Amino acid sequence: MNRKVLVTILSLYSLFINAQSDSTKSWLELEAVYSALPWFNAHGGLETGFVYMDNADVTAKINFDQLLNLKDNFSLFVYGLGNHGDRATDLMGDFQVASNIEAVKAWRVFELWIQNNFLDDRLSVLVGLYDLNSEFDVLRPGTLFINSSFGIGAEYAQSGLNGPSIFPISSLGIRMATFIGDRTRVRLAILDAVSGDPENLKSNEIHLSRKEGALISGEVSIYTDASFSENNLNIERSYVTRRRKVGREHEVYKNDKVNIGGWYYTSEFEAINDQSSSHGNYGVYIGAQKYMPIGEKGDFASLFGRYGVASSRFNRFGSALSGGVVVSNPITTMDDNFGLAFSSGINGAEFQEIQGSSETTETVIEFTYSLPLASWFLLQPDVQYVINPSTQQELMNPLSFAMLVQISFKY
């Protein structure tokens, strides 16, 4: 064997062994999560009945800083997403989408990006296919719930020709993040405004054009609790999937914070009331989370609330309000979590004028209980009640019951 080739192989092997010996962070992180969600609409909506949905998340992350002994964090992330089953919305008739794994049947590459951190992890740049909702408009207590509006605000999720760059279709872009001082994190993302192909929901085609424009999203997070320290300053987009729940084996940061964010599409959109095209499709939001310790065993209760507005000229919901409470270990000592929350989407004046209904607000109330029976197995019974589904007077308020079952593998 050529001596240079042998030296190269031995060098790479040495790097591999050194990276593997790092007890705090591996050079390779793998995870697979299977989520099954049987759903029964017991009353109201479009019709009563049963549907089954499932979702597979397969992720891989290569930490080149560990593999190659680099000073700065540098990583590659790949996320494969598969969806199957029917839609709870077809039973309930709601607009906010009661199931956050509901999507068209398809397999796709959901995310594919590289990230490099600078200045001792205080500045981060990420480029590629990117799930905006993995970092923007996230309140940790809200991630416990199954309704989509607790993952991202209803007025934000409705925007764009094919939604913003969120589940289940992402778009190409760049995200920059930094800390200002010790308690203020700033994020800015510039993304292709059209995720995939609006005419083919199974496609995650990338097509950049001036006509389609860009989605510009910014957010400032202000951490207010005294326990926040420099240990929290590392800026690293977590590879944990968006639909993983509070109370699992991975760490959940219990930091009080306030989010202030906004978004703007550079392209023109058709107005709801007269179909004329113009610029000005934007929105702003504010959200907060508060953690309160209970006892001396690390248990907690958390509160969260959020309010956002969107241009009612181009969007159905002119505003949305949500909030809730989560209590850890209410029944067992197995990191179980109880949650109660609501989300209200309020029609804008233009849409309301066209619809002509006296109902202006759709409100969902969700009660959920997350019980991890093992580090790899989770059961989560869930109840949702929707008041004024899609603000249509002829629909009775639906009452649904579901059972989330999650099986995970992590390396």
TrEMBL record:
Pfam families: OprB
Keywords (A to Z) from UniProt: Signal
Taxonomic superkingdom: Bacteria
Signal peptide: 1-19
Matching InterPro entries: Carb-sel_porin_OprB, OprB_Porin, OprB_sf
A cellular component term, taken from the record's GO annotations: membrane
Name used for this protein in its record: Porin
